[in-house]
Task: structure prediction
Amino acid sequence: MSQYEPKPEDRFTFGLWTVGNTGKDSFGDPVRQQLTPVEIVHLLANVGAYGVNFHDNNLVPIDATRSERDRIVADFKAALKETGLVVPMATTDLFTDPVFRDGAFTSSNPEIRAYALQKTMQGMDLGAELGAKVYVFWGGREGVETDAGKNPLDAMNWFRDALNYLCEYSLDQGYGLKFAMGAKPNEPRADLYLPTTGAMLGFIETLEHSEMVGVNPEVAHEHMAGLSYMHAIAQAWDAGKLFHLDLNDQNGARYDQDLRFGSHSIKQAFFLVKFLEDVGYEGSRHFDAHAYRTADLSDVKAFARGCIRTYLILKEKAEQFNEDARIQELVAQIREAGDPMSVYLGEYSPEKARQLKAHPFDRVALGKKGLPYEELDQLLIELLLGAR
Result:
């Protein structure tokens, strides 16, 4: 088991809302006692986490007085110092309170949009005070049940204005924050604006400070849309926009399940871990997941340890995949290493284009050539099942 014990350089983090989840759902009351932020910090230290992230109101209740706020933050800081945990990321809850029933940055009411900005600036102040370098935006209410009452162009303009405003605020305060936007196709609203990571990446390029803004893709959210999470983070990485990520699991296009990482879609989890390790991703491995409603506190700890342990096991499996002689032989065969077509491909030149146009391709022969994906995938399955 020792090789699966986390180290600080693994950068495993959890949110206060993850292990602190009481098991309440749309059909049932809480089944676990609400832990305080200080208790959560000590729990996470006990399971080997590197850091803890939070929404503003996970830490400080929305109706707290200034003196209550200062006491809570002081106690939280003391717990961080005692355990050695850090706060890499913070975010704002713009979806729980009834004031955000029609959205926050995209609310039809300009006073609510202004309040959302105020609340977010205060959240940024708190995050910066606790050392956060990434600030996440998940628009849980930024959407509609019906398009009858809201023009999506207006909503996008309001959303854009808010991000531009908050970028300027961060610059003005010298916080040095990176903003990371999280996409989700639906829930809690019927249709959420900017429902996928690709949509977020397109929107970011319309911002005044697009260099400050990236994405925070989540496994469950991409899988809810029937998409590949690994492809989403690959696109974000390629664009230089993978500022943060949320790891969990999901059983198909259902409600947002936030399952323990790797507990359902094991092959997809493998390719995700392999990608992150192969490219040298240095950000947090943040687990945005919840223990089963059936769990007690002891089982919540098992849940958190399970997220970490599964990641480290899959990291080891990725190393085995990269070192397996037969697997790499097949990979090289598929990629046609040293193929003479390399003289035609890549960067354009007039001479290269002239030569390529003149090259005699045997289309029929090319169409007859098979690829050993079945064997390769079976070897992967055997590797994951411990039979290789």
